């Protein structure tokens, strides 16, 4: 396993629509190594999720995991490692919420993005088994953020431009208010 370089905004691979994987491609040693590397890369960078095109591979593989005491997103409840291949998301209803997001591929910026509060995620796990999960709250936002990556979309494309801020200004003037909103959301709908 190894930590891979994370591609940053301006790299064309972040703007490609990643392609679906066939079952035999998912089983291939190369793909399984990619998944291991993505896990290691996400953990080393303290991300909440990662999409394969962020490490330069335009295939529909993403993962979400929030480890306890994540320093980058301390308000996110722990979420178990979930590897999702060829994911499809479907909102459960029309409710949306503004989430203050960051992205490992967009250094030093955060901003407010409207996300569905609850989604149904259907995907293959890394062994090719079909899975279905209902995901709510901040984790639902992370799933939508990662599937956007696979479609070549960055959170900046969806953010209200006037809400963009550096991490320094987030810490200085916005963190307390957002963490209050994040806690309310978690209490109301779960992670
Ligand atoms: Ni991202």
The run of helices and strands is HHEEEEEEEHHH
Based on secondary structure, the structural category is: alpha+beta
User: C-alpha Rg, in Å?
Assistant: 16 Å
Shape: globular
The CATH topology label is: Peptide Deformylase
- What is the tally of beta strands? 7
Helix content: 25-40%
Count of runs of 4 or more consecutive helical residues: 5
* Overall number of structural domains: 1
Assembly state: single chain
Low-confidence stretches: none
Which CATH top level class fits?
A: Alpha Beta
Protein architecture, described:
The protein has a single domain, classed as Peptide Deformylase (Alpha-Beta Complex), CATH 3.90.45. The protein contains five helices and seven strands; from the N terminus they run ααβββββββααα. Strands 1-2-3-6-7 form a five-stranded antiparallel sheet, sandwiched between helices. It has a two-stranded antiparallel ribbon with strand order 4-5. The longest helix has 23 residues. The chain is globular, with a radius of gyration of 16 Å. The structure holds nickel (II) ion.
Top keywords for this entry?
globular, binds nickel (II) ion, five-stranded antiparallel beta sheet, single chain, alpha+beta, two-stranded antiparallel ribbon, 191 residues, Peptide Deformylase
